[in-house]
Amino acid sequence: MAKGKNKKENKEIEERESEVQNGPVKRQNGELESTVHVQDLYKNWFLDYASYVILERAVPALNDGLKPVQRRILHAMKRMDDGRYHKVANIIGHTMQFHPHGDAAIGDALVNLGQKELLIDTQGNWGDIRTGDSAAAARYIEARLSKFALEVAFNPDITEWQRSYDGRQKEPVHLPMKFPLVLAQGAEGIAVGLSTKILPHNFNELLDASIDILQGKKVQIFPDFPTGGYIDVTHYNDGRRGGRVRVRAKIEITDKQRLVIKDVPYGVTTTSLIDSIIKANDSGKIKIKRVVDNTAEEVEIVIDLAPGISPQVAIDALYAFTDCEVSISPNCCVIYEDKPRFMSVGELLRASTEHTLELLRKELEIKKADLSEKLFFSSLEKIFIENRIYRDIEECETWEAVIETIDKGLEPFKPQLLREVTEEDIIRLTEIKIKRISKYNSFKADELMRQLQEEIDRVNYNLAHLTDYAIDYFKHLKEKYGKGRERKTEIRVFDAIEVAQVAVANQKLYVNRKDGFIGYGLKKDEFVSECSDLDDIIVFRRDGKFMVTRATDKAFVGKDIIHVAVWKKGDTRTTYNMMYYDADSGRSYAKRFNVTAITRDREYDLTRGAKGSRVLYFSANPNAESEIVTVHLSPHCKARKKVFEFDFGKIDIKGRGSQGNIVTRWPVRKVAQKEVGESTIGGVDIYYDPIVGRLNTDERGRLLGNFDNGDLILVITNDGKYMLTNFEMTNRYDPEKVVVIEKFNPDTVISAVYYDAELDNFFVKRFKIETQTTNKPFSFISEGKGSKLIVATTAPEPQLEIEYLKGRPKKEFSEKVQINDLVGVKGWKARGNRLSRFQITYVGLAENSDEAGESKLPPEISGRAEQLDLFGE
Questions:
Q1: Which of 277, 342, 339, 343 is CA-nearest to residue 314?
Q2: Cβ(752)–Cβ(732) under 8 Å?
Q3: Do 25 and 15 touch, CB atoms closer than 8 A?
Q4: Contact at 8 Å (CB) between 830 and 794?
Q5: Where is the Topo IIA-type catalytic domain (predicted)?
Q6: Which of 33, 688, 709, 839 has the CA that lies 20 to 30 A from 617?
Q7: d(CA 54, CA 691)
Q8: Catalytic residue numbers?
């Protein structure tokens, strides 16, 4: 029996498999059963799933900038709103009436909204996006809608509604959002087959841009992150796919061995940032002693550098090897008309502004209709009471007779009413209480109707000038809610960091000249220099060939090595002096050349290419020094002079492919160096790029001068400090702070005007630089809190223009004075002379001065000082 049963079951299984593979199968009763292929099921299910994730979970809608879970949270909070805080756990429970997912998903979305600090007022521990600390449990924290959210996000009269997932409740299709929310908050989501990443923008800048759009102006907006820091928007591409922004932490130098990180990049926490720093240190990219996280109300990560590490180079290394710099690729995708749509942030802002304009129009039309209805019924009520139409219904015996009698009584007055009188209007008249009829005041009724008409006229005016009305609306939002929402992320142009130049030398380079190996794993061979594993190594051989290769543990580069060193791309200073024997002609040649650019691991020939050619003499000179060498010819040659001197300084520096100058046609026995001369290329022109705050030799920015070894740069900053630095390309200067930057001359006199907060006076001083310490700032103004540098210049005869108030009533006067006449040259620590006893409103360099420029007083200083008058009574 069991065997027969199994046979029957197997037959049924085979029939079902046949149905799936071959279509319908005819049963014994003759009926056909329809079947669906498994692959078709997967196709349909996958499309349903993909559409659901895109439309209902991951991507925000263009109309209100919200994902469905966010919209349902705000809707639930609006239903609960009573002005007081509610437990987040309670909000989550109410939201679950509309959202068909678990409490964890709703809670995470609610915390994310709360951390934006825009739509939700929070109370309790909501976590910290800077440190990555999570929020407390939902039962411990509270929230309510912000005043801003209540003003811009809700209006049931213009909201389109739909049934909730279980049909028990109604929920909004979109909230009537009268603000570009998705650009203010940002959005990120991964759907099936697409993703979105919209970066947050500044609240006030969005409102200003919306106003500009309404005024027909072109707009350009850039991201602004709540974590602060710096951002390079050169390749932002208006937020489109393919764009990119670079974000950096704000790093300050407190002394020669300490750096402090003040802001973290967007999307990076202090914990992950410190982990990346420790990882870079462990891998040898940077050298630090310790990292301390002092973050509390403000971000503060203290980095103590290892001895001998330049803080300027360390900053570049942090940007190159750690999360102090991150790259973010925006991808602006929103749901529009039930489809995902990719657009730029400019297009998104324009669409949002036009949507807000339409919502404002609908609100005005609804308000107009409400006011017109109030005016209509007030007029109807006045006619009904003043003409005593209510008395005509005293003898009516039926309800229909009452309605007919009132309608007949109103007939003469209908032409003056705003619309036709309906039965519902007559019923409302019958509901007027006797008390109101007896105390009816015709004057008050006329006043009410006049006010209603004025409001209707005002609404009609706004509808006729809808654009102006919308502009005023955006200005109102900025004035009411824009305070404290100033830009936090500074927009800058970042310089390109050569990682090989800033990487710490964490390896030792060795060479086996005879066998032709180089690397940092050849511990028993000849030591060359320290290097990093990111460095390029240049190798010259006796046969006149050279190549550049990446530093590695061990690499074969060819036998008979004569020179090996770390090579820097674009190095125009290092010059190679070489003398070689050409096997083809039998002559000896001398040449000088640079190696500025090559293809890595490619072999280059420095001779004329003949087999058997060889190098007779070779030297590498870091500053293009000339040389005099002694050439010894073969004693068996017929040359009259068998020993002579050759000066490399007399030949030009050319490309590496040049054959060089003929030295002799006789065989050379040996070449020996006699003496090393001075550099033959002079100093190097150094430029300062004020956009990125870096030095360069590529003619970007302003020429500071021609620099030789030992020359320094003078930098004066707006905090009243000066500093001397070398001219290394790794130096960085804050463009926002630099007032003066130039080649240092010990005879230069600095003229300065500053405000001393302790004495509440303006002072003028002139001084020379007396210190010799480099890379250390020295303050030449009073260090009291509130002291400010007003003017600083190195012009030989600077002229000040001063505006001040004098007399009673106070009148404004303006004078021009030579700083040289006000004060003599004193020490840099001297306080200087007081400037004026009158109320100064402006101090700046005069237009005819060498460095004229505006120097308005800070608002906290203007109008405070009353000092000794050096140019008045």
A1: 277
A2: no
A3: yes
A4: no
A5: 59-502
A6: 709
A7: 42
A8: 140
